[in-house]
Specification:
Largest sheet: 2 strands, parallel
Helix content: 10-25%
Bound molecules: flavin-adenine dinucleotide
Strand order of the largest sheet: 1-2
Number of domains: 1
Shape: globular
Structural class: mainly alpha
Number of strands: 2
Strand content: under 5%
C-alpha cells in the first residue's frame, strides 16, 4: 500500500506491479485529467480534505508551498522556475 500517488508512491508501486503484485494507492486529492488541467490552468481540485495548501514561508518571504494534492502529486506542476 502506498500513501500518495506522487513520484514516491509510483516508485514504490511500479516494481511491485511489475513483479505481478497488487498495490493499493491511497490519495487524498482528486483526479484532474490532463485535458482538464490545460482547460482550467489548474492541477488539483478543491475537494474536501485536499484543499490547496496556501501556507507561506514562515520567515515572511513570499515563498508559498507548491505541493499538489491530487492524483499524480507535485510532479503535475510546472512552474517554469529559472534560477538566477
Ligand atoms: C515548481 C516545482 C518544480 C520542480 N522541478 C523539479 C525538477 O525539475 N526536477 C526534480 O527532480 N524535481 C522537481 N521538483 C520536485 C518534485 O516535483 C518533487 O520533489 C516530487 O514531485 C515529490 O514527490 P513525492 O511523491 O515525494 O510527493 P508529492 O508529489 O507531493 O506526492 C505526495 C502525494 O501524497 C498525497 N497525500 C499527502 N498526504 C496524504 C494523506 N494523508 N493521505 C493520502 N494522500 C496524501 C498528496 O495529495 C500527493 O498526491 C519540482 C517541484 C516543484 C514544486
Amino acid at each position: 500500500m502506498t500513501i500518495g500517488s506522487g513520484v514516491a508512491g509510483a516508485l514504490v508501486a511500479g516494481p511491485v506491479l511489475e513483479a505481478g503484485g497488487t498495490v493499493v494507492m491511497i490519495e487524498r486529492g482528486a483526479l484532474v485529467p490532463w485535458a482538464k488541467q490545460i482547460e482550467l490552468g489548474a492541477w488539483e481540485a478543491d475537494v474536501p480534505g485536499a484543499e490547496h495548501n496556501h501556507e507561506n514561508d514562515p520567515a515572511g518571504d513570499d515563498r508559498p508551498w507548491t505541493s499538489v494534492f491530487g492524483v499524480g502529486g507535485s510532479c503535475l506542476r510546472w512552474a517554469g522556475v529559472s534560477l538566477e
